[in-house]
Amino acid sequence: MRDANSLPSDWSAPVSRGLIELLRRSLPPDQDDPMLDRILVDLTAALAQGITWLPLQPEQHRPLHQSGWLNGPRSPLVLHESKLAFRRWHEGMETLVLRLLERVAASPDINETDPATQPTLEQPTPEQSPWIQGLNPEQLAAVAAIRQHRLVLLSGGPGTGKTSTVVRMLAQVVSDQPELRIGLAAPTGKAAGRLQDAIRNGRECLPPSLQPALAALPCATLHRWLEAGSRGFGRHQRRPLPLDLLVVDEMSMVDLNLATALLEALPETAQLVLVGDAAQLPPIGAGAVWQHLQEDAQRQRFGSAAIELHRVYRNRGALARLSGVLRDQGIEAFWRACRHSTAASDSSENLQWQQGDRRAIPPAVTKALRDHLNTLQNAVAALPPGPTEPMGDNLDAAAADQALDELDRLQVLCPRRVGAWGVDMLHRTLLPEGGVEAWPPGVPVLCAANQPELGLANGDRGLTIGAGPQRRVLFRCIDATGTASPRLLHPARLKALEPALALTVHKAQGSEADHVLLLWPGALRDQERPQQECALLYTAITRARQQLLLLTATDPAKLESSSEAAL
Q1: pLDDT in tens, 311-327
Q2: Average pLDDT for residues 251-257, to the nearest whole number?
Q3: How far is 372 from 78, CA to CA, in rounded Å?
Q4: What's the confidence (pLDDT) of residue 338?
Q5: Per-residue DSSP letters for 321-354?
Q6: Beta strands in 497-539 (DSSP E)
Q7: Would you put residue 457 in left (φ > 0), alpha (ψ -120 to 50) or beta?
Q8: Rounded distance, CA 12 to CA 21, Å?
Q9: What is the pLDDT of residue 24?
Q10: What are the tens digits of pLDDT across the range 123-182?
Q11: What is the signed CA dihedral for 437, 439, 442, 443, rounded to 10 degrees?
Q12: What are the phi and psi torsion angles at 408 (to 5°)?
């Protein structure tokens, strides 16, 4: 049996141990049941993954009820439908859901521009709204929902047209109310940039009269919209966001605290469109909001305001097939299908599988990264090093954007930072010691802290430029209007800067790359939690737009459970 010392070695472990000891001391003398220890370890381990509840087995109910932990309104735990949860987060999630349901019940304030041509708000026709031509029934339902509800939940996997659907929804709203104040948001800077680019590129299918409005929509991280700082959020109920509609992408990354802060800051009359894929990793913080909202029982409560897209439009070959198997059938079925698919496929297939020795970075990875670095070095060579700040006139913005775009050509992903085939191991192999000043030009770097004064968010990637006193880092920064533009910064201005030749899957969530190399060293620590491992692998492989190289250190059908395999 496990004890408190077997908890995951992450930031939550000390807090988890403290909670366990506190609850143990509150037990009656005759209720020191080992099963209670197991329940607490599992519950706090789930919380470390962002999950605030734990499904219980029938034999666990009796000792739990006898413990006294469920008695009274001030009890620390709550049991709801055979799920155990910390009362604080359970009640917070229930409150959040109720507030969202209130928005669903309220109709948006739509002023029809021409009532004669728009007889109903519920079902626009192609004659009234030409941008809905060719949409499938699910997408049409989403366009109708934006005219019926102040809240719309839009879910779907990669390639199902979520962003295309959002473009049509926004076109309908702008057509109904041209003066509407609309904003775009995502949990990370990279995800926000992707959303803004997708909306701008997607507007080309709209009538010319609507395109400028969508091109001008401001986009930023949720923390930036909420003006997050050391004292909390600058936007709240007494100082709400100046918006009539907010679209939030990548909702699977949003935890309970951030979602609650967002609702506090959004005016009651404003509309909210939440978009995401529930199969991806839950947020780092406590409270997997999107995963909870996408449970069948919850979706039914939202009725026509909850739309799920199923039809895959993007031709992604084996990537689409295998990610679907992983999402719908689990990790064991994925490995079986992967083994069959790669054995039967040729080199033109967009998912390749290789095995290697976990004691060294595979040659395929080092070669791909060195080629990528060479491309990046050539891209930054044309940029002038060390201009004055703020951004000097001698920076070629087009060349800088082109260099930054090269970052999305290739990405190496690892499940963990430390251990075999971890991010740290790869950086020690390929980069010299000495920090950012010692790295060669063209090395991808990661901003590891929110710095709104510089227009940067935690997770933004950039490139090293120049050397010595002229060493700078190139980032795409977001200004006060939500517009992104390249900027050169001195490394000393960055609170936390890390190399980014490889990223953990968590850090890469919300981004995509043309080619992804995924290092999967074997069984993960949470092998008893296949759902978490499944979400980690699903998030990793769906980062690839065109090609995935999956590298495993063991036969996935015989994943090791030894401590060597655990990262």
Answers
A1: 887 656 888 888 889 99
A2: 95
A3: 52
A4: 82
A5: HHHHHHHHH-HHHHHHHHHHHHHH--TTSSEEEE
A6: 497-499, 502-504, 513-520
A7: beta
A8: 14
A9: 73
A10: 677 777 888 888 999 999 999 999 999 999 999 988 889 999 999 999 999 999 999 999
A11: -110
A12: -90, 10
| Cβ neighbours for 94, distance < 8 A, ≥ 6 positions apart | none
Residues 526, 42 contacting (CB under 8 angstroms): no
pLDDT tens by residue, 354-374: 888 888 899 999 999 999 999
Within 10 angstroms of residue 360's Cβ, the number of other Cβ atoms is 13
Q: Decide if 293 contacts 152 (C-beta within 8 A).
A: no
Is pLDDT above 70 for 561?
no
The DSSP letter of residue 149 is: -
- pLDDT on residue 15: 62
d(CA 81, CA 69): 16
Strand, helix or coil for residue 284: coil
Contact 313, 161 (CB under 8 A): yes
Q: What are phi and psi of 472, to 5 degrees?
A: -135, 165
User: Is the model's pLDDT at 115 over the cut of 80?
Assistant: no
In the prediction, which pLDDT does 121 show?
54
DSSP characters for 384-424?
Answer: PSS--SS--TT--HHHHHHHHHGGGGEEEEES-SSSTT-HH
Could you tell me if 521 and 419 are in contact, meaning their C-beta atoms sit under 8 angstroms apart? yes
- Measured CA to CA, the distance from residue 497 to residue 491 in angstroms comes to 8
* In the block, residue with structure tokens 């090293």: 464
Span 176-186, pLDDT tens digits: 999 999 999 99
Nearest to 486 by CA among 391, 551, 566, 360: 391
Residues β-bridged to residue 324: none
Q: How confident is the model at residue 472 (pLDDT cuts 50, 70, 90)?
A: very high
73's CB contacts (< 8 A; 6+ apart) are none
Coil, helix or strand for 77?
strand
Contact 290, 254 (CB under 8 A): yes
% of the chain with per-residue pLDDT over 70? 86
Nearest to 423 by CA among 435, 433, 414: 414
Rg (CA), the chain: 25
Rounded (5°) CA angle 275-277-283: 95
